[in-house]
Amino acid sequence: MALASLVRRKAYLLSRNLSNSRADALKYSFSLSNFSRGFASGSEENDVVVIGGGPGGYVAAIKAAQLGLKTTCIEKRGTLGGTCLNVGCIPSKVVIGHGLYGEMYIKLILALLHSSHMYHEATHSFAGHGVKFSSVEIDLPAMMAQKDKAVSNLTRGIEGLFKKNKVNYVKGYGKFISPSEVSVDTIEGVSTVVKGKNIIIATGSDVKSLPGITIDEKRIVSSTGALALQEVPKKLIVIGAGYIGLEMGSVWGRLGSEVTVVEFAPDIVPSMDAEIRKQFQRSLEKQKMKFMLKTKVVGVDTSGNGVKLTVEPAAGGDQTTLEADVVLVSAGRSPFTAGLGLDKIGVETDKIGRILVNDRFATNVAGVYAIGDVIPGPMLAHKAEEDGVACVEFIAGKHGHVDYDKVPGVVYTHPEVASVGKTEEQVKALGVDYRVGKFPFLANSRAKAIDDAEGIVKILADKETDKILGVHIMAPNAGELIHEAVLAINYDASSEDIARVCHAHPTMSEALKEAAMATYDKPIHI
């Protein structure tokens, strides 16, 4: 029941605040009186400096300024919110981050996904709805121009937020010269030193390279190059069946490319719930996307006009050659910390280059913090944003909180796949007795009315308490539908809590209500 969930949530918040208070008293005594507004030679001292203008960096900078801290943000490219490794923000606390790529990628991919989906609908679905054209063609330059315009408007909006919140903005590449000083080579060709009592590293991540494959962003591309192709490739090979690879493959597949995905692992998106993953792969295959799983790339030949890829089974065996006009390398991402001078000040990292932090995002060097893709945890833009807010709250002597087990994930294809909490495989591994409730969108009136009913909602709940453990949705706009489940999981709600909430009819969200009903009792419409 809803009342039970509220009681559980109140107890949780009380216990968390008590715990944090003890930690504050014992480990992290802090006073706002420690902040000063003095001046240092060559540079005004900040409370916070943020290097990186990506999702984590710019959000941290704005939040710090809102909390009354003198803040500067450093951004390498001079364009906030988007391009990889370009931004360093210098707020009243110092945040070092070249993490624009995540934000830029999201804006670019969403723009292209929407445009390519409109084209696909026009060529495959409009006639069935009585909307007919004599011909439909792709104007790729216009599509790219629309994408660039959308991104430009959004990134300029972040600069406007900086001005509104009085965040100082330095355009250049930042690197440590001491735990409280960042040297910046500005895009105007001038070198300066930015000083801050607290520095936040928010430099994001970079494309993970593969041995023997050189990315030229023309024929062998990263996601950056795949977002800027000048023509639709006849054949596209995607190396890696994760979020980004499938999203980019989906864009170009809709526009007419023959897409083949090569993946070393036995499954696409290994972190996804297995049942949902199988349905998702079938959906992509119906869209003519081909998959070569348990396959590794052993050679690349770019001597001709196209690209020849030599592959073999992951376990070893006969080699085969694949030909493509463009190859997209999408085998994951690595933390970007090169050139920041971390070794100079002694910041510790793990074996794969992630910066080690405590539960307050503090590194082993006093006054230096790290957030987002450069630390352990999901490499997601919204996770970085939450990191940024929590980190700054800790710096300001407040309570910050991010629970990585309750961060939603979304694959922006069509249909989308969104999830929060645990997969069924994870619940089984924990040895928890559980119930499963499912509801297909084929039984949802809104989905059937708009002729877009492919997908399912799946809910996992504790068998004894009915507490929701995980929610997985494959559907159009699953990325929007998931947030009711995110709220429920954050408040330790039960499946009955969702089932007893009145949902407007007809809506896609009714499928979540029906799945919740199926979890603790029985659904109505199936």
TrEMBL record:
<keyword id="KW-0285">Flavoprotein</keyword>
<dbReference type="Pfam" id="PF07992">
    <property type="entry name" value="Pyr_redox_2"/>
</dbReference>
<feature type="binding site">
    <location>
        <position position="332"/>
    </location>
    <ligand>
        <name>NAD(+)</name>
    </ligand>
</feature>
<keyword id="KW-0547">Nucleotide-binding</keyword>
<feature type="binding site">
    <location>
        <begin position="379"/>
        <end position="382"/>
    </location>
    <ligand>
        <name>FAD</name>
    </ligand>
</feature>
<feature type="binding site">
    <location>
        <begin position="240"/>
        <end position="247"/>
    </location>
    <ligand>
        <name>NAD(+)</name>
    </ligand>
</feature>
<dbReference type="Pfam" id="PF02852">
    <property type="entry name" value="Pyr_redox_dim"/>
</dbReference>
<dbReference type="InterPro" id="IPR036188">
    <property type="entry name" value="FAD/NAD-bd_sf"/>
</dbReference>
<dbReference type="GO" id="GO:0004148">
    <property type="term" value="F:dihydrolipoyl dehydrogenase (NADH) activity"/>
</dbReference>
<feature type="domain" description="FAD/NAD(P)-binding">
    <location>
        <begin position="47"/>
        <end position="388"/>
    </location>
</feature>
<feature type="binding site">
    <location>
        <position position="93"/>
    </location>
    <ligand>
        <name>FAD</name>
    </ligand>
</feature>
<keyword id="KW-1015">Disulfide bond</keyword>
<dbReference type="InterPro" id="IPR006258">
    <property type="entry name" value="Lipoamide_DH"/>
</dbReference>
<dbReference type="GO" id="GO:0050660">
    <property type="term" value="F:flavin adenine dinucleotide binding"/>
</dbReference>
<feature type="binding site">
    <location>
        <begin position="203"/>
        <end position="205"/>
    </location>
    <ligand>
        <name>FAD</name>
    </ligand>
</feature>
<feature type="binding site">
    <location>
        <position position="263"/>
    </location>
    <ligand>
        <name>NAD(+)</name>
    </ligand>
</feature>
<dbReference type="GO" id="GO:0005739">
    <property type="term" value="C:mitochondrion"/>
</dbReference>
<feature type="active site" description="Proton acceptor">
    <location>
        <position position="505"/>
    </location>
</feature>
<dbReference type="InterPro" id="IPR012999">
    <property type="entry name" value="Pyr_OxRdtase_I_AS"/>
</dbReference>
<dbReference type="InterPro" id="IPR016156">
    <property type="entry name" value="FAD/NAD-linked_Rdtase_dimer_sf"/>
</dbReference>
<dbReference type="InterPro" id="IPR004099">
    <property type="entry name" value="Pyr_nucl-diS_OxRdtase_dimer"/>
</dbReference>
<feature type="disulfide bond" description="Redox-active">
    <location>
        <begin position="84"/>
        <end position="89"/>
    </location>
</feature>
<protein>
    <recommendedName>
        <fullName>Dihydrolipoyl dehydrogenase</fullName>
        <ecNumber>1.8.1.4</ecNumber>
    </recommendedName>
</protein>
<dbReference type="InterPro" id="IPR001100">
    <property type="entry name" value="Pyr_nuc-diS_OxRdtase"/>
</dbReference>
<dbReference type="InterPro" id="IPR050151">
    <property type="entry name" value="Class-I_Pyr_Nuc-Dis_Oxidored"/>
</dbReference>
<feature type="domain" description="Pyridine nucleotide-disulphide oxidoreductase dimerisation">
    <location>
        <begin position="407"/>
        <end position="516"/>
    </location>
</feature>
<dbReference type="GO" id="GO:0045252">
    <property type="term" value="C:oxoglutarate dehydrogenase complex"/>
</dbReference>
<dbReference type="GO" id="GO:0045333">
    <property type="term" value="P:cellular respiration"/>
</dbReference>
<comment type="similarity">
    <text>Belongs to the class-I pyridine nucleotide-disulfide oxidoreductase family.</text>
</comment>
<dbReference type="GO" id="GO:0006103">
    <property type="term" value="P:2-oxoglutarate metabolic process"/>
</dbReference>
<dbReference type="InterPro" id="IPR023753">
    <property type="entry name" value="FAD/NAD-binding_dom"/>
</dbReference>
<keyword id="KW-0676">Redox-active center</keyword>
<keyword id="KW-0274">FAD</keyword>
<dbReference type="GO" id="GO:0045254">
    <property type="term" value="C:pyruvate dehydrogenase complex"/>
</dbReference>
<keyword id="KW-0520">NAD</keyword>
<keyword id="KW-0560">Oxidoreductase</keyword>
<feature type="binding site">
    <location>
        <position position="174"/>
    </location>
    <ligand>
        <name>FAD</name>
    </ligand>
</feature>
<feature type="binding site">
    <location>
        <position position="373"/>
    </location>
    <ligand>
        <name>FAD</name>
    </ligand>
</feature>
